[in-house]
Amino acid sequence: MFKQIVKDCLVGFDNMPIDEQQLDRIERFADILLEKNKVMNLTAVREKNEVARRHMADSLFLLKCTDLKGKKILDIGTGPGFPGMPLKLYDPTLDITMLDSTSKRIAFIEESAAQLGVSVKTMAARAEEVAPKMMGKFDIVTSRAVASLDVLTELSMAFVKVGGYFMPMKSCNEASQEELDKAKHAIEFMGGKLIGTKEYSVEEGVMRQVLIIEKVKHSPKGYPRKYAAISKKPL
Ligand code: SAM
């Protein structure tokens, strides 16, 4: 059932192909996640078929948004590895760094990847603290369920090289349009330009989207600020 759900979701992504080996790796990761979730807070999604949809297929949609091959990719606030891990399990050659401020979640990713025989790059750190050392180092930065778009844009944009893309995964409804309106200044201020959105669904009646924000100029010096300043007065 799990594999069929992932396959059916991918049919909805313009018939995105997936083979048995990829499905095996992704299902094994779901099993490891749900087992560890019994003793550690990793996900609120506790039902395996829901993990198939809301974590695995959802993450894989990023592959439909741009060519990730040969790109340096950063997943900010990856938690237990979303979207980073399903992308790596789909294509282990992808160069993805998974960053999270909670070292236990990063340890979970490393242990799972070792069990699955996939090598991963991880960082246990706060995005705003490591950003000054990693300015413009990534072609693509993504993030899912971490912060409102104005805050997330400040946290993320400095990592993207000029000509690269910030591609946050967000819901797609009236509230998200307001969230986008509120973030317009932050996007421009941090050197970005919204060039499009890609909409999709993995659950009946629930639309989601990936925003495609091109980095058109360098982010200003001194940004991102400390987290207290970002959340107190978002850009
Ligand atoms: N991206 C995953 C997903 O979609 O399932 C996890 C989402 S979880 C709700 C948010 C994660 O962002 C947490 O694991 C948290 O530790 C991390 N996080 C929040 N603020 C962060 C920051 N400033 N730098 C790095 N990680 C952060």
Describe the structure.
The protein has a single domain (67-232), classed as Rossmann fold, CATH 3.40.50. The model has no long low-confidence stretch (mean pLDDT 97). A 7-stranded mixed β-sheet has the order 3-2-1-4-5-7-6, with helices on both faces. With 235 residues, it is an alpha/beta fold. It has 9 helices and 7 strands; from the N terminus they run αααβαβαβαβαβαββα. The chain has helices spanning 2-12, 20-36, 48-60, 84-90, 103-116, 127-130, 149-156, 174-189, 227-232, and strands at 72-76, 95-100, 121-124, 138-144, 160-171, 192-203, 206-215.
Summed up, what is this model?
The chain has helices spanning 2-12, 20-36, 48-60, 84-90, 103-116, 127-130, 149-156, 174-189, 227-232; strands at 72-76, 95-100, 121-124, 138-144, 160-171, 192-203, 206-215.
CATH-derived topology: Rossmann fold
- In terms of structural class, how would the helical and strand content be classed? alpha/beta
Ligand kinds = S-adenosylmethionine
What is the CATH class designation?
Alpha Beta
- Count the helices. How many? 9
The helix fraction, in percent, is: 40-55%
Total count of domains: 1
Nearest-angstrom radius of gyration? Answer: 17 Å
Number-wise, the strands total 7
How far apart are the termini?
Answer: 45 Å
Strand count, sense and barrel status of the largest sheet are: 7 strands, mixed
Order of helices and strands: HHHEHEHEHEHEHEEH
Q: What is the name of the CATH superfamily?
A: Vaccinia Virus protein VP39
Mean pLDDT score: 97
Read across the widest sheet, the strand sequence of neighbours is 3-2-1-4-5-7-6
Uncertain parts: none
Our estimate of the beta-strand percent is 15-25%
Shape: globular
